[in-house]
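Researcher: Next sequence.
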Amino acid sequence: MSTARIAILGTVGVPAAYGGFETLAENLVRHRETLKTPPDLTVYCAASAFASRPARYRGARLCYLPLRANGAQSMLYDAVSLVDAVLCGHDRLLLLGVSGALALPLVRCFGQARIVTNIDGIEWQRAKWGRLARAVLRASEWAAVRFSDEVIADNAAIARHVATRYGRACHTIPYGGDHAHATAPDPAGAEGLPQSYALALCRIEPENNVALVLEAWSRLSAPLVFVGNWDASAYGRELKARYGAHPSIRICDPVYDPARLRAIRDRATLYVHGHSAGGTNPALVEMMQFGVPVLAHGCIFNRETTENAALYFDTPDDLIRAVNTLARRPDAARQTGARMREIAERRYRWAEIGAAYFALLDPEGAREQDVPAPDQTGNRAA
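Model: Next structure:
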């Protein structure tokens, strides 16, 4: 029987209602329920994000901290979580992101816990950060790679970055997306929307090429539904004011409820993905499950995720040409959508991803479950 005491750190917490790492934590909690001998599991949560704070969720213990998981307090939140987890006797730590990684040398000084870190994207390269923030994030990435027992990248391009910059191999384990299609739809989510449309869904940030997508669509007649947190920044508010009244563009507030989001996705006839930073994006692998053609920014991360089988753009004109090409060639559109679904069903399933994470966190327990340990690509050995 597994005696591992595992802690998941670096997220807002569970139940998931925010982003990719929270969805990962949620699905790891659910995967634990399927194990013959489930290990002890704790998830660290930001108390302010939850009106109700139960002690347990689906068998996992929840530990609430009086700090915010994102923004200015994120580094302190992660660092306090790490120290508390070790002091409370956890011997396997899963750190999601590098915000708190500068505390890992300290953790190493007074604890023997096995540390597994998912380093997320190359955070310090994001355009939104200033010089000081980039320096801190670069140092945090170095600490995560240097002081973790195992390092996880969610995209092969990130793994190559780690190998080139630090001379270290890491495990490539992406995100799952099958939960998005498994959720029953709530029709209220799509109320008032057209019966079919192109869909874009993201945080409203420059690196997600929101302005590029909107500029292109302002020159198209096909409808676009664009879901995002428009009111969270001056950038988003300016774009909303500029394009909100355009007859082809429907600006929608963020939707976190899975059932309502499923209803919105069900009506999409193509998906526009403008992300240009990070690694494997959760929204992309989730939408690939729906079998619609994907028009993605041409960065290496999106090409790796879609196996170069989507359509790609770097400029508004590229995007317009891609949309028009699909409109003229419905057979090609169907083939592209079918290819996206095939890739998603083969690569982005939570059952396999959960098994790979637990095999790294608890190798002894994984052997009891008859689950082979993952190799350096994240695949489980035969």
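Model: The first strand starts at residue 5 and ends at 9. The CA atoms of residues 98 and 119 lie 6 Å apart.
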